[in-house]
Amino acid sequence: ANLDLAQLLRRRLTVTGSTLRPRSREFKQAIGANLVKHVWPLLESGAIKPVIYRSFALEQAKEAHLLMESSAHIGKIMLQVA
């Protein structure tokens, strides 16, 4: 696939990839265990905080997507599913 880098820069997008599929179950479990051990405590204590721009009900997904496409935000756009 082709990737338009100019679009990425203009819209301040981030490309993140993962190739965990071929990894063993043990490897994936180790990643999860390390997240629980090292990252979760930082989130729980408030030492690190995600920047949340706005939260939407799932029924407002279209509005949330329009906001995301507009690039008029800084931080995460969340959909609440529960």
What features would you describe in this structure?
By secondary structure, the protein is an alpha+beta fold. It is 45% helix and 13% strand. The longest helix is centred in the middle third of the chain and has 21 residues, at 25-45. The model has no long low-confidence stretch (mean pLDDT 91).
Secondary structure layout:
Elements: H1 5-10, H2 25-45, E1 52-57, H3 61-70, E2 76-80
Parallel strand pairs: 1-2
Keywords summarizing the entry:
two-stranded parallel sheet; 13% strand; 82 residues; alpha+beta
Give the spatial strand order of the biggest sheet.
1-2
**Rg for CA atoms:** 17 Å
How would the global form be characterised? Answer: extended
Strand content: 5-15%
